[in-house]
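Dear colleague,

Following up on yesterday's call, I've attached the two folding results inline so they're easy to grep. Please treat them as preliminary; we haven't cross-checked anything against experimental data yet. The first protein's sequence and structure tokens come first.
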Amino acid sequence: MAAVTKKDMFDALNEFYGKVLEPRFDRIENRLDQHDQKMQDLFNHFDQIYQRFDRLETEYFAITAGLQRIEDKLDKEISKRELIEREIDVLRERVSKLQQRIEEIDSELKSHRNP
């Protein structure tokens, strides 16, 4: 058997690396690069989703605050309306009494004219 020199061993290992290992490492690196790009795309997508959630949350709080202001204003208006309705009822009662009093006075005047 022929003696194997260091150079022969180096050449054989170098050829094995170049033909077998290096292409595999290149494929692994390419797949890792593709994976990294997909992950980056996914992270960007999540960032966009989170930004939309932030905007939605901000709009939600703005809408909630607006609705609260509307409800408060509506409560005040309802209270005012109820107060006005009560005052109108009181005024109607007073007008009715005044009308009765006017009719009584008119009756008395008619009775004094026709003695």
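Below is the second protein, in the same order (sequence, then structure):
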Amino acid sequence: MPAFRIKFLKRVCDATGHETIICQRAFEVKARDQDEAIDRAKDCFTVAEAASAWWLRADRIETEPLAEDGGAPT
């Protein structure tokens, strides 16, 4: 089954007013496809963050396919 790294990102301002994007959490998920992996990661994120919805703690989601052995793509 394919594996994906799902990252939850949030845009924040620092003390000088400059915006930066930080990774709130990342999950490695095995799923049939990218959409299923995102759905599973959303569930994990909301539980880990004790939030009712993922978008309360993150602005966007990025996905990355992983190699079958769990490492980086070749």
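For the second protein, one point worth flagging: Residues 16 and 22 are 16 Å apart (CA to CA).

Best wishes,
A.L.
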